[in-house]
What does this fold into?
Amino acid sequence: MDETLILARAQFGLNIAFHILFPTISIGLSWMLVVFRLRHERAGNEAEKRAWLATYRLWVKVFALTFAMGVVSGVVMSFQFGTNWPGYMNKVGNIAGPLLAYEVLTAFMLEATFLGVMLFGMNRVPGWMHVTSTIGVAAGTTISAFWILALNSWMHTPAGHVMDGAALVAGSWLGVIFNPSFPYRFAHMSLASGITAAFLLAGLSAWRLLRAPEDPGARVTLRFGVRIAAVLVPLQIFAGDQHGLNTLAHQPAKIAAMEALWQTERGAALVLFALPNEEKKRNDFALTVPYGASLILTHEKTGEVKGIEAFGEDRPPVAPLFFAFRVMVGMGVLMLLLAFTSTYLLRKKELPPRWLLWCLAGFAFSGWVATLAGWLVTEIGRQPWLVTGILRTADAAGKASGAQLGSSLTAYILTYAALLISYMVVLTHLAGKGDGGGLMKGKLK
Amino acid sequence: MSEYPPVLFTVLPLVFTGLMGAAILAYVVLDGYDLGVGMLMPAATPEEKQVMVASIGPFWDANETWLVLGIGLLLVAFPVAHGVVLGALYLPVAAMLVGLMLRGVGFELRVKAEGWHRELWNWLFWAGSFLASFAQGLMLGRYITGFASGFGYWLFAIVVGGAVCGGYVLLGATWLVLKSEGELRRKAIAWARWGLMWVALAVALVSIVTPLASETVRAKWFSFPNFILVSPLPLATLLSGIFVWRTLGKSDWKPFAGAVAIYVLSFLGLAYSLFPYVVMDRLTIWQAAAHPSALIFVLAGTLVVLPFILGYTVYVYRVFGGKAKGEDVYEG
It folds into this structure.
């Protein structure tokens, strides 16, 4: 791989990884805001009404900041398709372009416009209109994910296209959109977003309760967050397993690399931990469970599982997939334990033990870790292809020089690091201060 | 894929040129005023800054999405040009994106900060607005000349960069005339006059230099009978400028409308200069166009969705009509 290709990939990877942090929160959080907003509308008494309004006001601030980070990093994405991967647009522009255009038309405009009403319009529009705007923003974030994941899934499991000279055109748009991996990916990512937002909600509320144990709003959102997590994490484990089986059917090389299975064999062992050795094509220091891989992947003790050797040169690197997959699954298991424990300990209305609050606060951004690890698995797992079987990543790269890429990459890294730190500091500060609407100070009318 | 009638290959690229042009024009006018307000920030007192920020708060997210729509349509309709244009503009695009990020985040974070933190975010909001505006002008300058290399062409692009900043300041100042009261409004009137002079100088300069620099443009404007047919365009631009100057201080909305008219007219002039090229002298819109299967699919969606987008955009501008107040920030 030459230097400019590595830089182009590093830059695009950095951008897309930075970007996905924010939609991951905002998709889930937007629906939670709908719940808060409706609870405020429907509340039986004045005190409850105020409490839900304060909760809404605090979290709408978090949402606005998150959304802004998503917008600005999303604008970068729309340009980098052209600057970094011109070959991508030449070859599959007839497929990718319309899907991206539909995302902007049906989702992005909707959420960005109604966000104005949602943030600033509570005293300017009728209540039902404000509720509608909040739902409009939430619907927008979800529709947005629909189109982007349709395109991403198509790149993994292309379908519905026909060749027209050197480029591709859509034969059936329904075939393109509902390609084989799309339903699994959409479910997996939607759940990931819900879980990320739930842990953020619970984590920041726990942070608040460590400082102000009496804050009634934070108590409510803490319980709300852990309960949502306790429902969504098991669903996610099921959805993830289904997605894995789908990947085995369509991208078996990815699975082989994730599991570090070098040779095709019957009754393959599950590798729990190892140091994959690319040179010698084997695992060092492997800790395995006999027949495990065959059982999980084929549901038969002696089922045949394809190893990496079966895919020749067209296969992804093993070590990054192997480790990223374990980070994702490991985080999932920890999140499951924490969600169940917290739900159990929070079943009564009294204040939970401080060690639990510390754990939850520590897990405030755990969804990001799992989500990024998951995306690394699926995207690196598609290599060396940009579009499976159709376009190689190396053939899509542009002509930007190493100096251009290097200098702009440096600028992006500095900007992103500063923005990410600011974002996390501000969120923690907002949550620590709590009390979005001045509920406790009696400022609220 | 021969079942598409040939007329579609001719007409669809034209339709998408119109749509893309409209989206970019909408972006320039809409984000132009909020970038302009951002660039004017250092000239205001802390209380005035609150009002200025409140005047663009409900709109800036949506304004910026028009850029994504414009770039999205370029990508959809002219995938080949998307790569060529953005590849050639690599560094100015990166600078613009960093600028847009800084100002967007600065805008959100300044509300939540106090003391010197707020000053820092104010400064970043200003610097980001300025960087993004200048980079956009630089992109425009490079684009008009077909990315020609040479010191003179770069100098030209830098001049256009300055011109775009001036233009956005004019839009931002007239927006503030519309949205503010009292001392700030008086200041905004003065800013608008400076912006207008700047724009007049820049438009004159660009109108003189562009035909000198490009043979294609020269042939379009200064051959008979084209000269007569297109002469209303510069005349109307001049009249709009005079209109802005004369209505400043007398009317709230007329200066802004006049500033928008200047933009629309300059944009039409530019479009006339470029057509039918999507990359000057190199790629026509027909050479760069995507396949009809993609264009029809997007066009269908656009025709259904665009009325809704326009409808709710108008609605939001009506909801947040009238003078901005400092305390409007985050009334949740």
